Amino acid sequence: MLDRRSSTRRSTLGADKAYDVADFVGELRARKVTPHIAVNGTVYKTGTRRKTAIDNRTTRHPGYGISLRCRKRIEEVFGWAKASAGLTKFKLRGLPKTTALFSFFAAAYNLVRLPKLLTQQPA
Description:
mainly alpha; extended; two-stranded parallel ribbon
């Protein structure tokens, strides 16, 4: 999908901490893509931290933090779908049926979020 981009400008790609690998980050940088990947700060049994492939070139910009917060909001939706809505495994086959089920789930999630959204004051 990165190779199908029409723009030659630098873009960003968000991913979770499983993609915090030097080879993957190097490939992104070679394609002029800034990796907005969550840092995998796993602590080993010896007490040392895992070396991350994301350096200060990326993390120093405010856009990196914004990107991680947006990704977290998106992940919360899918976490709710798996935990509460029972969508760990689709029991339907075919694109029309799965599309309908996912649309139903999205509507249900919006109803769950509605009271919180209504109590927020406009900025």
